[in-house]
User: What shape does this take?
Amino acid sequence: MPLLENPVFSAELPQEPAQVTALFAVSQPLERDCIRLYAHSQPCVTAGVYATAEALLQALREGICPQVVAVDVLLPETAFQNLLQSVQKLPGSPSPKILLLTPFPETAAARGALHKLDRYTRLVRPYSMETLFGTVYALGADERSTRIYHIQRLCGAALQSLKADPALTGTVYLKRILLCALLYEQELPLSRLYQIAGEERGIDEKAVTAALSRLSGALCRKHTEGYVALCRRCGCASQTPLSNGRLIRALVEELRTRL
Assistant: This one.
């Protein structure tokens, strides 16, 4: 269904996805550094990173209440088992979800040991930080928040591939428009998407339209492979900026194929 057909004139941009607190106990210093660094780009995930099971347990005793505890199975066995048992005995409900960070089980012995932990969710190395945090978020949040989180990441990645400057107001508005268009089952008219995009900053439709037009011009000048592909999707030449409507429609259609 085209973007501007069957319009719905009343809609609100959904609230930000729920916050998830996750604690990580990881044996390798480099991996701990990567988790800390990546966490800075994840506003929906608060991460505590520890080198030992004992340090993570101390954080729990001090009152941190995570939704997810991610545990490296390469930690010393006694400490590892003690941590799992302690997390299961935490007061309150629901208990944190446990994610096991495991090596690839190359040997029969490793496969046998991991078989005993089948009741826990596992993530097998090597994995990207994006995969790790996506798994953590899906464990700790409800289905609706997880869907919003996933769509936000898709929108961010698409705009990054176009080299859309995050400092431009047009980029901010376009990301909100894409999120809204992808979340609602019924199509929204372009004018309503502009209104929703500007509501947070008290900006009117005309200002949003102008900001998006400036962004489209900037994307055309950068002429990335992603932008050329969007132009092909629209049946337009890539030497001139796409109209706001065509830019939004092409991005929405592309991102829907990834949901």
